[in-house]
Write a structure and sequence with these properties.
The complex is a heterodimer of chains A (about 260) and B (about 270). With about 260 residues, chain A is an alpha/beta fold. Chain A has a domain of about 160 residues: Rossmann fold. The radius of gyration of chain A is 18 Å and the shape is globular. Chain B is mainly alpha-helical and about 270 residues long. In chain B, α9 runs parallel beside α11. The chains are: A alpha/beta (about 260), B mainly alpha (about 270). Chains A and B meet through loops of A and α6, α7, α9 and α10 of B.
């Protein structure tokens, strides 16, 4: 399989995840079709695709939440994963403060929780009921909770849902910073193409099968991407991305679908 | 105090102590209908116990656990075990129980005692079941507490963070089955769910943590048992329903208290 990857200057490209020919069929419906990719340490990889493309399903398979798939999935042994789910449905009758929510499984000392919340800019909600904070605050709290586990891999499912544009941009800046400062590898599912293109190392374009994968600027030129999101989107993103190219330079080829 | 009254109070308080914390989980996890289903199936256990000449409590525990296991397995399959499935299981097992009872002409079962409880007829053996089983259940719940809270908040998060989600869920469901069997003695199977959820709901407005809510629910349940027994003796009302009515009144009171507190904090 022709694959060009350029080692980053910052750290050696150690593989964290390797997925080969992942397929999943549920009740006769094929949700994932022959998906092959890998994820190297220190990367931000974003999964994009239309609704029902299997983005969340793919994450669930990687997280071990979805049994019954075929193919080969390898995770680096003792890989510590921090997971930020799409949403939380906690019944309002559950008296649970943010602090308690974060320390539910591992009883981190309070100062550590305060520090983690400060890092994501959500210190003010530490004693609030977790059901009463805003969508943006909840995302930060979930992120702080994931970070406290000092994960090698951070997995975020649609981290910008229900958060305003300003909040989205801030979140992506934060993710970039986490990668740079902590060397955290980040895998996320997203809808917002503009932010994805600006803040991602690699994009995985999914529509049950793998349409294309590569750098953002390569993926927007991929025919299946253009067919999916329209030529205008591709062009505007390419222009948008072009402005960023001065400081990011990861030439990487598009891998055509098999 | 009369001996039977003392036993009634002891039994009622024992049930309240166990129903409080478990009831909180029923409320948090929205399992009221699930509790109902287990309770309804208990009558089938009673009927079969009579038919096969088994200890009735044991028969109820067995049937409830079987049903709980069945529901647990069905819920593993997506797209099944919604309200409809629970309703079908609840009412068909109740109906089968009634039919089996109806066939036994020689053995007359005091149906009312099972449907609505007979706290004033609590025997020493019942007390042994309530306190022995109750202590066992509370011990197990205490050990399950943290993972169970985590699973209640989010099964996915818990799973990723290493909690054995399915084992925890299964353990909880089986404990619920045992709980239904001992609660039936006091309030009857029709009212089991109410004594689970009403004290927990009343405790909600005052509680700031899961533990506080569980303890407060025990308190509310104990008050309801005391109040219900008193009403039952004073006016010769059926005890099980009187207990539930007291719990409901305490719930209304808690709503008023919540208003008062939120007005205070402003």
């Amino acid at each position: 399989m022709p694959k060009i990857s350029v080692p980053s200057a910052r750290q050696p490209r150690q593989l964290l995840v390797q997925a080969q020919n992942l397929s999943l069929e549920v009740n006769g419906r094929r949700l994932l079709d022959d998906i092959t990719f890998d994820l190297a340490a220190g990367q931000i990889l974003t999964v994009i695709g239309p609704n029902g493309a299997g983005k969340t399903t793919l994450l669930r398979v990687l997280l071990g939440l979805q049994p019954g798939f075929s193919g080969r999935l390898w995770l680096r042994p003792e890989l510590r994963i921090g997971y930020m789910p799409q949403r939380l449905a906690i019944d309002p009758s559950f008296p649970l403060s943010v602090h308690r929510f974060i320390t539910l499984i591992t009883p981190f000392p309070r100062h550590q929780v305060e520090q983690a919340l400060a890092e994501v800019g959500a210190s003010q909600v530490i004693d609030h009921p977790v059901q009463r904070i805003s969508g943006g605050e909840l995302q930060r709290v979930l992120l702080a909770r994931a970070l406290l586990r000092e994960p090698d891999l951070l997995v975020l499912d649609e981290p910008i849902q229900g958060v305003d544009v300003h909040g989205q941009a801030e979140l992506y800046l934060l993710l970039g910073r986490l990668r740079d400062e902590r060397g955290c590898t980040i895998l996320l599912v997203s809808h917002d193409l503009h932010l994805v293109m600006a803040a991602t190392d690699r994009v995985l374009c999914l529509n049950r099968h793998l349409c294309c994968t590569g750098t953002p600027e390569a993926v927007v030129r991929c025919p299946e991407f253009i067919a999916m999101f329209g030529p205008q989107v591709g062009e505007s993103l390419a222009v948008y991305r072009h402005r960023e190219e001065h400081n990011h330079n990861h030439p990487q080829a598009v891998r055509p679908p098999e | 105090m009369d001996d039977f009254l003392f036993r009634a109070l002891l039994g009622g308080l024992g049930v309240a102590a166990v129903a409080g914390p478990f009831g909180c989980f029923v409320v948090w996890r929205r399992l009221a209908y699930f509790g109902d289903t287990l309770a309804h199936s208990a009558l089938l256990g009673v009927a079969l116990g009579f038919l096969l000449e088994l200890d009735l409590t044991l028969a109820v525990v067995a049937i409830c656990m079987l049903l709980a296991l069945l529901l647990f397995l069905l819920q593993q399959r997506e797209g099944l075990a919604g309200d409809t499935l629970l309703g079908i299981l609840a009412h068909s097992s109740l109906a089968v129980g009634l039919v089996v009872v109806g066939f036994q002409q020689t053995l007359r079962i005091d149906l009312m005692a099972y449907l609505f409880g007979d706290i004033l007829a609590v025997t020493r053996l019942d007390l042994a079941w309530i306190w022995g089983g109750g202590l066992l259940m509370l011990t197990l719940l205490w050990r399950l507490w943290r993972p169970l809270l985590a699973v209640t908040v989010s099964p996915e998060l818990a799973e990723v963070e290493g909690v054995p989600v399915r084992r925890v869920q299964l353990a909880f469901v089986l404990l619920m089955a045992l709980l239904v069997a001992i609660m039936m003695k006091i309030v009857g199977l029709v009212l089991v769910t109410s004594l689970l959820i009403i004290p927990a709901a009343a405790a909600r407005s005052l509680a700031r943590s899961p533990e506080q809510m569980a303890l407060l629910a025990v308190g509310v349940g104990a008050l309801a048992v005391g109040g219900g027994l008193w009403v039952s003796l004073r006016w010769d009302a059926p005890a099980g329903p009187a207990i539930v009515v007291s719990a409901a009144l305490l719930f209304v009171l808690s709503l008023g208290l919540e208003r008062l507190l939120s007005a205070d904090s402003r």
